[in-house]
Queue: 3 jobs
Job 1
Amino acid sequence: MFAAGDVAAAVADDAGHLGLQSCQFATPMGKAAGHNAAADLLGVPLVDFTPDPYVTCLDLGSAGAVFTTGWDRRVELDGKQGKELKATILDVIHPPLDDAEEILRQAGRQSNGVSG
Ligand SMILES: Cc1cc2nc3c(=O)[nH]c(=O)nc-3n(C[C@H](O)[C@H](O)[C@H](O)COP(=O)(O)OP(=O)(O)OC[C@H]3O[C@@H](n4cnc5c(N)ncnc54)[C@H](O)[C@@H]3O)c2cc1C
């Protein structure tokens, strides 16, 4: 059985980090789960899922936003710069609808160990 997204949250990786109910997990998890469901049927190797890089971008309202990297959440951007990144993320996060070619093209940009 394969799962992705919020229903697969709270599963720990090898280092004990819990998956989170977030877009950054859900989207690449879906790609890995889909890959693995097909690979299982075809009898070819499965891929592991690793959020890489692990980041957090939290909107702070009028104070801007904070962007961190790594599980120890090193602050990379804050204030106005963080807010601009948050706006960019919100802009690109929505998947295209009813456009199989574009959906597959965008699937290739996910960094989760699954190529293409
Ligand atoms: C208000 C809010 C703000 C959030 N903000 C952020 C954020 O800033 N950053 C971030 O990373 N994450 C955020 N999240 C979390 C993020 O939205 C979820 O982690 C992510 O959407 C989970 O994806 P998913 O595919 O697992 O589930 P969903 O996106 O919930 O997709 C599940 C889909 O299944 C459908 N469905 C349910 N039951 C059935 C059924 N029986 N038959 C057919 N279809 C069904 C639903 O209608 C839905 O379309 C936010 C969530 C909320 C609620």
Job 2
Amino acid sequence: MHPRLTNRCSRIEPEPPPLLYAWLARGTWFGRIYQRYLGDLAGNQPQGARLLDVGTGPGVLMGQINRKRPDLSLVGLDKSYGMISQARRVSKGLGGPLMAWVVGRAEALPFPSAFFDLVLATMSLHHWDHPVAAVVEIMRVLKPQGRAWIYELNRDASLRDIKNYAREEKLPSMLVYLVFNFVRWHSALKEVDFAQVFHRAGVPEWQLQQVHHIFWRAEIQIDAFSGRKRLQ
Ligand SMILES: C[S@@+](CC[C@H](N)C(=O)[O-])C[C@H]1O[C@@H](n2cnc3c(N)ncnc32)[C@H](O)[C@@H]1O
């Protein structure tokens, strides 16, 4: 028995069409969001770290990480062959020590244990069929002292949060409000969603951070000394 997330997406499980999604991902709206993830990520990784992006979609964010941090080994995984085809196309010409695209499921990651320094998942968890199994897998593939960052939209973001986000992005508040409300019921998550998933995955400690006003970021850290896996 696995928990049902409170967003509607988890019940109807629509798949974004890869071509359309790849086009959107290269556009301004997604670009601004990726810049925020990138700002969080790029300065925080040790030289030569190994990073896995679960539910990478068309791989646009991975391409941006590669341009900013060509020393990192990057692996993008998605269950959709169409998304991975787009990622291969979009990333042509990019280099680095390792840049690999893998068709696979978050719930059964095709990698050895303790393999990655960082596991990333952006706007993907709310699509996963079995988020508990996926979180267990993510913890398995993390190295001792590795960590995972899971980003999702915050369904409980307030009007003030939306306005602050719009102000920082220099966008009309009304436009951001309308777009956010259009996606919030289908895609955004509540704190209770993370609580259920992490509890059932056996994560002993966790907390969520509200970042960039309208997002959640859950961080899973592997504690090298006790071997415990925890969220902060
Ligand atoms: C909304 S897109 C997000 C793509 C990208 N991470 C981004 O931020 O633009 C969600 C992605 O998760 C993938 N996905 C859904 N369920 C998955 C699963 N169980 N395992 C791996 N990927 C999955 C979908 O195919 C889709 O590409």
Job 3
Amino acid sequence: MIKKNIPLIDLKAQNKIIGSELLNKIESVMSSTQFIMGPEVKAFETNFAQYLDVKHAISCGNGTDALIIALEALGIGEGDEVITTPYTFFATGESIAYVGATPVFVDVEVDSFNIDVTKIEAAITPKTKAIMPVHLFGNACEMDAIMAIAQRYGIYVIEDACQAIGGEYKGVKLGTIGHVACFSFFPTKNLGAAGDGGMIVTNDERIATVCKALKAHGSGENGQKASNLLNGVTEDIVVDQNEDNTVYNPLKYYNYLIGHNSRLDEIQAAILGIKLKYLDEWNALRIEHAEFYTKLLNPYEQALQFVLPKSAPHIKHVYHMYILSAEHKDALIQHLKESGVSTGIYYPVPLHLQKAFMKLGYKKGDFPVAEYLSERTFAIPMYAELTPTQQMEICEIISQFKL
Ligand SMILES: Cc1ncc(COP(=O)(O)O)c(C=O)c1O
């Protein structure tokens, strides 16, 4: 067979379709010379909130910052515990540790790859302040059960929706069910920037106010509002009358909280604004491709000892990744590589076994399902522009794998 050249994610294919639309927009931002906190960011935040049907969308520098700022806005820090999954990208646990809190891991389900809700309650202690479920690979966590537990114990839910933009749980968009949620616009995400970007969303006015302040040095009107809220102070807010951020604005130099410099820039916001219009179409294509993969690979599941991804009927899985869980992972990856098909390993080391989390005291065997998956899972090519021919070629190659 002729060697193929099929990437895991093909951003060039996307560029061929919308590249000139993006370049025109970038050019117009360049000529405006307004690069930070201008009209593109404002418009994207409004459109993003509308897309999700959520009250507040606060853009920031990346998904990791979104998680950190959301945790800080909830007052989570030293001495607190946050329950999350060990089978995720490092930033999930990192954000919790970064604010000084302790990540408390709970094992995942073997079918959905997401946090096992039946095991959450056993991990709750008086120090637990929040649950951070991750909608991994685009598949929703069991949010009804998670919200019921959170309500019972009076704790927050921070959805890590970084991989699940456009996904749904019982007809409701992911990121709108918890108290606050975070998104990443890393270029390979379903909605990706040409660089880094992130978003915090919430229906809670108070959380939104503090997030807005924390993302920009706790300064100006937002900083004062947030500081007043946090300290129970009622005093007149000095209103920022300045719409044009390029003009000298003295209020910017009055700071009320220790925050961050974590802003989505105008060029990224402009790019994301264009891509948001295509998101539903792209997600629909991903779902179509996933269904086609499943149809083509189903006959080989048992013989070749791999398991295909599953999602429940009440969930709209948006297939950020299409993940196989294979007994002979390394050999299958090698076989695909030799035939010119790229794969990606997600995630080879569960968080409880990461060196950076050694001081938490976990050991191998603590989370058997996460460890089992980490040894077996990998992604095969998935992107909206993937063609049926490419998919048939990939599946043909997999079908020729010899145990
Ligand atoms: C589940 C999850 N959480 C958090 C992040 C962090 O996002 P970013 O890379 O934009 O900081 C990512 C992105 O890779 C992610 O996949």
